Amino acid sequence: MAIEAPYSKYSKNSFKIGIVLFVAMAIIFAYDGYLSKYEWSLRRSFYEEHVKDGKPDFDMVFNQKSPFVFVGLAAVTTVWFWARKNKKLLADENELIISDKKRISYDSIQQIDKTYYEKKGFFVITYKDKGGKEVRRKLNDRTYDNLAAILEHLVAKIS
Question: Transmembrane helix: is it a keyword of this entry (predicted)?
Answer without folding.
Answer: yes
